[in-house]
Amino acid sequence: LAAAGHDHGPAFLGLTRLWRRDDEVFAEVTGPTALDAPRHALHPALLTAALQPLLAEAGPAAVPAEWRGAVLHTPGTAALRLHATRTGEDAFALAVTGPDGVPVATVESVRLRRLDGLRPADARPDRFLTLTWPETPLPADPAVSWTVAAPGIPGLAEPGAPDRPDDAEFVLLPVTSASTLLPELLAWLAGDSPARLVIVTRHAVTVAAGDVQDLAPAPVWGLVRAAQSEHPGRITLVDLDGHESSLIALPAALALDEPQVALRQGVAHVPRLVTATPADFPSEPGRSAGTVLVSGSGDLAGAAAEHLVTVLGRDRLLLVGADAELAERLRGLGADVLVAADGAADRESLAEALALLPAEHPLTGVVHVADSDVESVLTSYTPEQFTTGLRRAGDAAWNLHELTLGLDLDLFALLTPHVSGVLGGTGQGARAATGAYLDALAHHRATLGLPGVAVAWGPREEDAGSGRPGLVPAGKGQSAPLFGL
Length: 485
Hints:
Elements: E1 15-21, E2 24-30, H1 44-58, E3 62-72, E4 79-88, E5 91-97, E6 103-114, E7 129-132, E8 135-136, E9 146-148, E10 170-174, H2 178-190, E11 196-202, H3 218-230, E12 235-240, H4 244-255, E13 260-264, E14 267-269, E15 272-275, E16 291-295, H5 299-310, E17 316-320, H6 324-332, E18 336-340, H7 347-355, E19 363-369, H8 383-403, E20 411-416, H9 420-423, H10 429-447, E21 453-456
Parallel strand pairs: 9-10, 10-11, 11-12, 12-13, 16-17, 16-19, 17-18, 19-20, 20-21
Antiparallel strand pairs: 1-2, 2-4, 3-6, 4-5, 5-6, 7-15, 8-14, 13-14
Helix pairs in contact: 2-3, 2-8, 3-10, 8-10
Keywords: Transferase
GO biological process, one term: fatty acid biosynthetic process
Pfam families: KR (PF08659), PS-DH (PF14765), SpnB_Rossmann (PF22953)
């Protein structure tokens, strides 16, 4: 499955036993230890794991595309037995029971669609996308009702408040950081309120230059984008700018059929991905006698370092938090490599590593690869796990920013191997928050007149199983332009 692109992450590795008999498939599935099954009619981790045998039957690049006659009999089950019977080409009837044989769900037909025709893409210009915030018209006379879950939106008028808070269509929750949001978000998702939760931030996203004034709210957008993927239709994101006209426009923004909205001076903007133009990329740094710091480990950090040496001719590198194998590989390419074992999250060790650079080869570039090792649906990990992972990734990027402020850099690239910070994704909350933070830091540096670019990867052909449903991998050797180098 992983080789075919179906690597869903550790939270979805629930398949424990599997049998096949002619056109029938039998499987047993259990949820992760932290699974809170009663919160869901059918937990997404269990459902994803239960469908994995069908994906294997249908061949590579198959996804569930059509459901008919799905009936839930017993909600809140923590383990499943699946009996799937092939009813046609790439179509199956499902009978799902609990370990005790009690019926959980039946599906008359689930049809899989093969994506075999999608091949790793070439590095054509329309492969590169950037996030924009075009204006969108607001309804003139919105009829919405809301209530505010907590204080923190000064100046918000109350004409939209219902007679009873329980009757509100929207519940507004002002938020300043992702770590404080998560407990409240989990509590909301555990409830059964028909209202939509509206997460309200201030200057968390960059609609125009200079928008991001504080990096703390930025990860909120990544976290909630992942939550929107896991719980569609339950959460809206609204970013304000502090102008009175934006507060006045807030009710109209709630009436939009948009999951994410930014209000600037009373004008609504919505996020859209568009094809990047050359102006969206920084100018290519030239060959330099200086040193480039490469922070992070894994395949992406290795690819970035090799690109610096073999394509850009930046052959003096300081590897921070990388392994010895990468250093030797780079030396084999002719690079002059220094290695600092501790990662960039350790500020003191990072400062010591920078001090080791000789005056004739000063630091002139930074490439930082950040990721989170927390991969699970939101309801399956604790706020402490989330906060620890986000702090580690955020501290490393911020330390690199602060400790290089006085240096003459021509390159500062922040890379993440996932697009979840923009697109969300099931089980991607921590990674999405990290990606959103890196993007905000790049915009912050741009406001200061400093070099900075944040690049989020889609799947790459050379990283089998690292993809995201709906995204076609980039072909081998086609990822280099995505470095922004």
